[in-house]
Every structure is written in C-alpha cells, then in structure tokens.
Amino acid sequence: xxxxxxxxxxWPTPNGHKVTLFLxxxxxxxELVPVNIRKGxxxxxxFLRIAPNNRMPALVDxxxxxxxxxxxxxxxxxxxxxxxxxxxxxxxxxxxxQWLFWQMAGLGxxxxxxxxxxxxAPEPIPYAITRYTGESLRLLAVLDRRLxxxxxxxxxxxxxxxMAAFPWAKLGARIAGEExxxxxxxxxxxxxxxxxxxxxxxxxxxxxxPEYQAGDMTEEERQxxxxxxxxxxxxxxx
Length: 238
Ligand SMILES: N[C@@H](CCC(=O)N[C@@H](CS)C(=O)NCC(=O)O)C(=O)O
Description:
By secondary structure, this protein is an alpha+beta fold.
C-alpha cells in the first residue's frame, strides 16, 4: 500500500490540534510521527532539518517534497494545495488570512504566556500573570465580538482562521482564569459549533492514544521545556 501523502510531526497541544483539525476535516491521508516534546524529540537532528525552531507541528508533503514548520504556514499550505477552507475570492481570502495572522501573532502567544505564568512558573509573578491574562482576555473579547453576527471567524464558512483559533479559544477559562468562564457567549457558541463537528472529535481523540500519554511533568522535563536559550540552540539540545 502507498504511504499516506502527508507526514505530520505532532504532539497533542493546541498548535498540533490545528493541523489535525484540517487533515481530518478534509479527509486527507496522513501519518503521524509523535514528537514527544517532554522527552526532547524536538531536538533530534532529523526533526531540526524540517523544523529548525525546535517546535512542532511540522509537515512533510511526500508528493511534492515540501516540508513546513509553523502551524499557520502549514494551514495555508494545505488550504492552497487542496482549495479548501480558504475562500477563493479576494475579500474572503484576505479576511481569513488576517484572522489567521491575528491568531498566530496574538491569541496563541499571549495565551501561551498566560498559561505559563499561571500554571508552570516556579513562583507566582503577579505582574506577568496580570499582563498576560489581561491581554488573553482582551483578545478573547475581540473574538467574541467578531462572532456576534457571523457563525465563523471569516463569515459564513468554516475556514483555517477557525482551525487556528479554536484550540486556544476553547481553553479560555483553563488558561485565562475564571473571568473567561461564561463571559464570552458568542465565542462559547462557536466553540460548541466546532466541537460538534465529527472531524473535530476525531482530531482530539488522537490525544487519547497510548503514545501520547505523558503523565505529570518531571523536573527534568520542566528544565528541558522552560530553560531554553541561545546556548541550547547552539548545542542542539536542552
Ligand atoms: N508558532 C508555532 C508554535 C509552536 C509551538 O510552540 N510548539 C510547542 C508545543 S505547543 C513546542 O513544540 N514546544 C517544544 C519546546 O518548547 O521545546 C506554531 O504555531 O507552530
């Protein structure tokens, strides 16, 4: 049997889910290559060749030989290659792309930092918690307002802008705290709408597979993930 066209280097985090949401929704053939970021797979030389930033997800298109890192670039590549989840006419296309960039540059990084300082920092740093929680809540409010009069981020159709924002926005209350719970009704309805899609259920079910069970974070894993620097890049490990 022929190999599946796509090879997705993946771990079940919000940025990983973005790509499986697309692949499942489109029904494209893909093979998952687990990148256990807790154990340091992101520093393996063969992974760094396709993902020089030592972050997953990364995608290889076996048909064209193209490899990509950065979840937003991967979504754009898949959308353009298959003519799916990205409107063809200029207005809808740019609407989608600007919200994709909004997620990549704003919602994802800010919620990532909020989660870091609220959950993983060795001691509470009130200024950092307030700053990143506040910015996350502001961005969630922008998304909530955007969804007040349309079912999806770019309009009537489900697009890569939704796939990029959904995995982060659905964690709203878990990452941005109590204030996010129940205070964004349009966003909550959109999360429910996307959660109901069978492809979403299939994408998230991957996290239950045995190879993706990581358990509680050890001190060694914490050091590996949260103490990277120029020196770790130069040495090719952490
Ligand atoms: N902007 C990147 C972010 C990717 C990213 O931060 N991936 C994390 C997991 S969600 C990772 O691979 N971390 C490994 C590490 O920190 O060493 C994208 O959207 O692809």
